[in-house]
Amino acid sequence: MIRITSKLPQTGTNIFTTMSALATEVGAINLSQGFPDYTCSPELVSLVNKAMKDGHNQYAPMAGVMGLREQISIKLEKLYGAQYHPDTEITITAGGTQGVFTAISAAIQPNDEVIVFEPAYDCYAPAIKLMGGIVKSLELAPPDYRIPWDMVRRLITNKTRMIILNSPHNPTATVLQQSDIDELTAIVKDQDILILSDEVYEHIIFDGQTHHSMARYEELRKRSFIVASFGKLFHTTGWKLGYCVAPALLMQEFRKLHQFLVFSVNTPMQYAVAEYLKDENVYLGLADFFQQKRDYFRSALAQTRFELLPCSGAYFQSVRYSNISDEKDTEIAPRITREFGVASIPTSAFYSRGTDHQVLRFCFAKQQETLDKAVNKLMKI
């Protein structure tokens, strides 16, 4: 008999895989998983081809192509007034998830406590548990999903090692406000607490609001791993290209693990993105691009029986269905997929206790034609 003891015995196939597979099975429109159904920039593709033809097809440096790290450094200083040294404080990763996993792995020891705000993207807790850490969950509730900082203070102990933040937030589409930054700063000041800031949607923020990156604030920057994604930025989720920035002391530990997880990531794409990033309009225009999609989708959804929740960032729209059905979200989401041909994500999947607020999440990073077809189907509910 061959046996293996699972390190994640409670973990099965994630909800994104499940709902996307169901959408494919029944031929439904897939608004569940967060990926675009339109092409990326032809110029960016040409730059990748050029990098390949120029011979950039072997291993990149472990920390990433220096030209790309330099462009990231320039971008961070322009946007947030933060200086990150390309040589010691920036590492290119195989997507945002790898950056998150590596940061947690580098920082968390057995019995360290990590505060996670739920609903939470599903890669945080498993990484913490694999390192022997303890997940301290704090549940947020619709419609605004605001962080109750008085409760955060109650969760802090002498074992608290990290707080994980995600803004703009997946799945709730909320963003941190200045008041949140003030509260967070007061909590961690003079404490040995790290921050992991998942900022993969940093450029998708609406209505003229500010993205409060940890890089903006010295007290937070000096203790933060910040993870970002070129997949979200350039509509290339399949390229699995991202980066992590952190002070040199933290990045030194990050790279110790990074070199044994992936060593380095896709070389020609790094050269292409380094060149593409020289035009700041490719990221500065992203908010307007997605706000048009958000406004269009919300206007169309308003014709359905769903109740729209606020959407301030990222490319997800959450809706309540309590005036439609009393079903659990894990029941109604598959039913709508099968019977009406539109796949969504039940947001209870983002809570460790499966808390059900009767909320579904739709992704609107789609062509207008796709959104029109989806809404026409949803109007029949």
UniProtKB/TrEMBL annotation:
**Annotated Aminotransferase class I/classII large domain residues:** 29-378
Q: Which top-level group of life is the source organism from?
A: Bacteria
Pfam families attached here? Aminotran_1_2
Which keywords does this chain's UniProt record carry?
Aminotransferase, Pyridoxal phosphate, Transferase
Cofactor(s) listed:
pyridoxal 5'-phosphate
Annotated Gene Ontology cellular components are: cytoplasm
GO MF entry, a single one = pyridoxal phosphate binding
Q: Which InterPro entries match?
A: Aminotransferase_I/II_large, Kynurenine-oxoglutarate_AT, PyrdxlP-dep_Trfase, PyrdxlP-dep_Trfase_major, PyrdxlP-dep_Trfase_small
Q: Which PANTHER family match?
A: FI04487P
Tell me which family the UniProt entry assigns to this protein. Answer: Belongs to the class-I pyridoxal-phosphate-dependent aminotransferase family.
- The name this protein carries in UniProt is Aminotransferase class I and II
Q: Which organism is it from?
A: Mucilaginibacter paludis DSM 18603
